[in-house]
Amino acid sequence: MGRGTVAEISLGAIRDNVKAIRDALPDGVRLMAVVKANGYGHGAAESARMAVDGGAERLAVAYLEEALDLRAEGIELPILILTPIHPADVLQALRHELMITVAGADWFDAMRKELGGKLPGKLKVHIKADTGLGRLGLRSLEEWEALVPWLKADDIEVDGFYTHFATAGKADTSFLERQYVRFQEMLGWCAASGIQPRHCHCAGSAAALRFPGLSMDMVRIGAAMYGFSPAKPSLEIALKPAMALKSSLIAVRKLVAGESLGYDNSYTASGEEWIGTVPIGYADGWHQGLRHAEVLVEGQRAPIVGKICMDQLMVKLPRACPAGTPVVLIGNQGGNCIAAAELAMHLSSVPQEVSSSLSPRVERVYIS
């Protein structure tokens, strides 16, 4: 039976979100579904299959091992690895027909030295350009010019050229606009060098939904396919949350005024209070930063009290409730709702951190 703490994943919601975005994109724009980090906590293979059903043409992951796991699950769609792989792993990428990200000439130099010769097939690469996020990618014309000779080898195919926006969710679009202008300038380097990438992409979920004009010929949809929407999207799409997190009370006790609970006596009752214990804690990804969040019990909001423990947390109940009473941490109950976006505010973060932080200890239950 387990402890009864489960993340319910609606496969239909993922599929429908992808389809709704796919249908709303400008003509000729492809959709790359991002299923990294175990599908943002929703399950990578399951999310990939629903993305295919929803009309995605390509997939993206962060690391080589994530792509290999998808191939082992029978996923055949083209997959882009967003983080440069180790040069020694290039043969695995070729063998499994994976596209890789390259950010500089040094990678090619190391790869050629590692292999000592020509590749046994054509390697598809996407060039990552750093236009302002400051994470990965080439930045200067000199770096580009050093890269060009490697890209012109007959065993290399430049399948894509891309960047990522740093402020696509912010109301102030000035930095995003500067990044886009910089990206267009870098695309000019490609043309001047005689290199024509098959695809150019710069828009993730927030940019694609807020600024369809930045779609170019492909968009990378991650957060939105799981129902996480940016503020004030231009594309009028009703995204469906794909995850609900549910548990139940495993213990209930009454405190009187002045009694404390939790590590470091972190909560003291102000009067007679009913306290319930829920079997989920920071080892499950329910961070200490959520100690002032709420859960739903009998359709009412119940605040978390005291420090969150490794395996459990405590909540102040609206009334005496028996052990076994259902608890909703993300989702709907009795006409009330707690969304991942609300929880993210407690962490000064984004909803996808909440979902992707849930550890494998939390059972995923898939609902079709």
Automatic annotation (TrEMBL):
Organism: Paenibacillus oryzae
Chain positions found as N6-(pyridoxal phosphate)lysine: K36
InterPro entries: Ala_racemase, Ala_racemase/Decarboxylase_C, Ala_racemase_C, Ala_racemase_N, Ala_racemase_pyridoxalP-BS, PLP-binding_barrel
All copies of domain Alanine racemase C-terminal, residue ranges: 242-367
Entry-linked Pfam families: Ala_racemase_C (PF00842), Ala_racemase_N (PF01168)
Residues of the active site: K36 (proton acceptor), Y263 (proton acceptor)
Lineage: Bacteria, Bacillati, Bacillota, Bacilli, Bacillales
Cited CDD domains: PLPDE_III_AR (cd00430)
Protein name as it appears in the record: Alanine racemase
UniProt record, GO biological process: D-alanine biosynthetic process; peptidoglycan biosynthetic process
ATP-binding listed as a keyword: no
